[in-house]
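Input:
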Amino acid sequence: MALSEQDVLAGLAELVNDETGIAADAVQMDKSFTDDLDIDSISMMTIVVNAEDKFGVKIPDEEVKNLITVADAVNYITSNQG
Amino acid sequence: MRRVVVTGIGATTPLGGDAQSSWQALLEGKSGVATLEQEWVARHELPVTFAAQAKVPAAEVLTPQEAKRLDPSSQLALISGRQAWEDAGSPEVEPERLAVDFATGIGGVWTLLDAYDALNERGPRRVLPMTVPMLMPNGPAAAIGMDLAARGGVRTAVSACASGNESIANGFHRVQRGEADVVVAGGAEAAIHPLPIAAFAAMQALSKRNDNPGAASRPYDTDRDGFVMGEGAGALVLEEYESAKARGARIYCEIVGGSVTSDAYHITAPDPEGSGAARAVIAALEQADAKASDVEHVNAHATSTPVGDIAEFTALKRVFGSHIDNLVVTATKSATGHLLGGAGAVEAIFTILALKEQMSPGTLNLDNQDPQIPLNVPRKPHSLSRKEAVAISNSFGFGGHNAVLAFRNV
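Output:
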């Protein structure tokens, strides 16, 4: 069963917290990964790979640069779940 | 040349989570060696089932995010570096005048092998992006340099088990020559992993005393059968003497010598004549402007291998002649195991505290002293009697590396 947007957001926030220590409730849809959350490219790639495992999706490397905001990532994951 | 003093010490060792608790446990005759409980010991049917693990796991000290981005060797390094810095009173120094010299013998071996397992089992996508900075041998030095914002140069000496001493010698010379005013120097190792254990065991370097791990590290004893792998880190804050005095820093002692020589004899075996090791001791004493008879205390390399312990004695005999009987020698690896790239730094701390407190640690498991090694090696802590005397600490490494440090009370 496909996860809801809220479930994906909560799961993603958990991955961000685990990797960076940023509080899960700071990970909101309108936040930019780099400008607002100060996540560097190495952490971003780690979060992406962990998100692939957690949500059962493929996120190609060329897609990662389009994931500017948390909403971009949540939308990509919800619309590409297997 | 400028004078250089030690104003801070930090350590995480098999005896304790900091320098003072490690020193106390050492004086109390405790051993940090124990049977390994990890499942991989039985899974790989390792021929050696014990080691000297860090007493306080790094995960109990660092935040999860710090630990996640650092190989275990860098975790231990960072812990020791922060302790040393705090112990020194966090000296105010221009970042461009603050440097790091921090060693490891092997580097990020856990990271490298975990990543290879991930590649084999789950493919290249699961090789994490932090793999390279975590496995590189300059990782421990870089972790400390980043943490303290040291911009005067961050360097790593890699010379197997002499690495820690070599880094401290390098740091000493940098402050002495005026290239930096403060250097955090030391070494770390975290290689208690099945592959290094199997590899060291394959070369017959490790003790196989599986039934009695606490008795396995027995330098100078007739029944010694190899070294015991240990893990941990030690860090010193080295500082220019006049500025340390001016800021009212607590000064442990002065570092007066740091020398490196090489055997070019055999890749692993020590030169049985001990000439390279002897030259290193002599060079350290020359830097200290000291005579052999000025030395009272020696923290020996003494790993508990049959040939290594004798070769070091031969070297000491060459340097000290009849004065050798006046030396108070300690082999602290009897308690800590062999911390490889971290050994020199932790033993430097023990040497510094021995000088400061005028008390040599005892040596464990010395039940029957090898008659070929007639050194004065007290079993229990033993008072030193000459406050103005020099103390030296030896480290030798595969590759024929010899590195010797010399300290003296100010």
